[in-house]
Structure formats: C-alpha cells, structure tokens
Amino acid sequence: MNIKEVNLFDYANYRAFLAEYQKKRQQKEKSFSKSEFCRQLGLPNTRSFFQDVLNNKAISKNFVERFVQVMGLDVYEAQFFRVLVQFNQSTNEEERELLFDQLISLNRTPKSFVDKKSYAYYKKWYHSAIFSLVDVIEIKDDYKALAKKLYPTITTKQARDSIKLMSDLGLIEKDEEGVWRATDRAITAGPYVRNELVKQYQLQCLDLAKQIMLNQLKKPHNISTMTVSISGKAYQLIEKKLQKFKSEIRSIVHKEGDPSDRVYQLNIQYFPQSQ
Asked: Where are the domains of the chain?
C-alpha cells in the first residue's frame, strides 16, 4: 500500500521513514499496528522486532525484501530503500560516501532530498577550512598559495574548485578589489538529510585529528582524552556544560575585536563505552 503522505525520497534514514510510514498507515488502516506490521513481515508471534529496528537493530537483506513487499514499494522506491538501508547500517567511511552518492543519483526528487552543491561542500573537509580562511587572509586568484596555507595541504585544483563551489553556493563573493569575502548566506538541507551530511563531515574531521596526532604537528594544539564513570544525573549535567561551553566558544568568535590570524578545528566527542 502506497502512503502518499510519506515520501521515501525525502528520507536519509530508513528507520525514520519506517516509523512515519507505520504511523500514517495506521491512521488509514486502524488494524495496521506494529504487531500487524511484524505479522506481515512473517513474524506472527512478536511485535518487538519492528520497535527493535527503530531502536537501531540491523536488518538483513532478506528482511529488506520483506519490508519492500509489505509496503508495496515500486521499482524505484525499492532500489532506493535497499541502498538506504546499506548506507544507514554501514560503519565504513568510504563505503558510506559511495552509498550516499548512489542515494543522490537514485533519488526521484533530488531537490527535496539534497542540493548536489550543498552535498559537495560537506563532502570535503577543506571547503569549510577555506571558508574560515577567507576571514583570515586576502584570497584572490592565487590558488597555489591558498592550497599551501591549509594543513594538511591540498592541490591547486582542489583550492580552485573549492572557491568556485562556495561562489556558486553564494557563500563568498569578490569585492571591488578582487578579494573573496564571506556573505551572510548559509547552506540548507532537509531535516533528515542534513544530519547525514554533517555526519560525513564529522568523520573527516576525526580523521584529520588522527593525522595531527601521528604527524606530531609543531604548531600549538591541544588533544586530550578522558574516560569517566558517571550516573545518569551526572551525564545530563555534563551534557548541559558541553552545550554551554560551545555557546561560549561561539560568543568568543563573534565578539572578538582583533582580526583573525589562524583557523582551528574544535571537536568534542562524548559517547558511551559501556552497555
């Protein structure tokens, strides 16, 4: 059964799509509960499977095809759904990038999914670095010099293409003297897709941090780790402190009176190491 209110091609997370699909379909078919969904998937004695999937349980290729049949997806939707499941369940950065490219090419409504130029911006770490560098040095058309200003360095072509991309996106523009300046525009994407774009970018940033550690960068840097045992209450308190800290950092950046003379990357990881 096709639920028109839920467009699969708007989603970059198959679990979010499944949750909305089940909800909308039950509004039309009162009997289509999570238990009924499981029954039609061939699991008559359990309703927990569907909820387990929504809670991050991986599904096999066999169950992917069962979902396709139960939801009555057409050929294009089924192909997109299969790749979407692979993408969400992959833990390999290179594979995820390849699969995301496939999702863009398979999407039947690409404008509502993600703008290809916006995706290109998040795809490479150096775009945001160059965007920040625009505020530090005067950048004209000497792309070779620009490429060498970054760490790690990039190629002249990458620097040139990056400037062109940001110009096409309206993020930067030339002033009367031919110097690139930042505009007030921002990149936008759908609510479900933006999370995946940012995740791809964050993976690159983590990889950069590893390079810094291994190459023993001599410029000032600060990398530290900490593992702690805490209660749920302490977790919430630390979470609030982190949010406040990030707000303070943004405030320092925006209110600073001195001209910028460097670009830094700040990453904060706060994740569980126990079940």
From this structure: 8-107
**Rounded CA gap, 173 and 202, in Å?**
26
pLDDT above 70: percentage of residues in the chain: 91
Which residues have a Cβ under 8 Å from the Cβ of 273 and sit 6 or more positions away? 227
| pLDDT, tens digit (0-9, with 9 covering 90-100), for 207-236 | 888 877 777 667 777 778 888 898 999 999
pLDDT at residue 21 is higher than 60: yes
170: left (phi over 0), alpha (psi -120 to 50) or beta: left
More confident residue, 213 or 150: 150
Rounded to an integer, what distance in angstroms lies between the CA atom of residue 183 and that of residue 181? 7
Q: Cα separations (Å) of 244 from 7, 233, 247?
A: 37, 17, 5
Q: How far apart are CA 78 and CA 201, in angstroms?
A: 28
**Ramachandran area for residue 260 (φ above 0: left; ψ -120 to 50: alpha; else beta):** beta
Amino acid (one-letter) located at 106:
L
Burial call 75-102: b when 16+ CB within 10 Å, e when fewer = eebbebbbbbbbbbbeeeeeebbebbeb
